From TrEMBL:
This is FlxA protein. Residues 1-53, 59-89, 106-119 have a biased composition (Low complexity). It comes from the Bacteria. Residues 1-125 are annotated as: Disordered. It comes from Clostridium drakei. Residues 90-105 have a biased composition (Polar residues).
Length: 125
């Protein structure tokens, strides 16, 4: 493969990584990114054992490693986003639970207050 073939491959890699950086749901995105990472790792292994000249091989591997780093950064960002979403969900659940507890406690206090006022006997009646 010639140098122009390598630069063509590099531009294709850049285009594919731009397409993969679009927003999708976290779990499917994470799974897709993991598959891409695995594929690139296999391509790197194949290139290491190819018969290309060492210069061409090095250029191809560098391009693949650059894409691999981008994908790993996207994976890390997706994981952080998932953790943030989970934390927010837990916080909302705790807040809802606290609000419900306060509401129940308030109703219990009102009930006690009502039962106490019903027990008062008017001796002057």
């Amino acid at each position: 493969m010639s140098i122009s073939g390598v630069s063509s491959m590099s531009s294709n890699l850049a285009i594919s990584s731009q397409k993969s950086s679009g927003s999708t749901s976290s779990s499917s995105s994470s799974s897709s990114l993991e598959q891409q990472r695995s594929s690139i790792e296999q391509q790197i292994q194949q290139e290491n054992s190819s018969n290309d000249s060492s210069e061409i091989k090095q250029q191809k591997i560098q391009a693949l490693q650059a894409e691999l780093q981008q994908i790993e950064a996207q994976i890390q960002q997706t994981q952080q986003t998932q953790q943030t979403q989970q934390t927010q969900q837990v916080s909302k659940l705790i807040e809802t639970s606290n609000n419900q507890s306060e509401s129940v406690q308030s109703m219990n206090n009102e009930s006690k207050s009502n039962s106490n006022s019903n027990s008062i006997i008017d001796v002057y009646a």
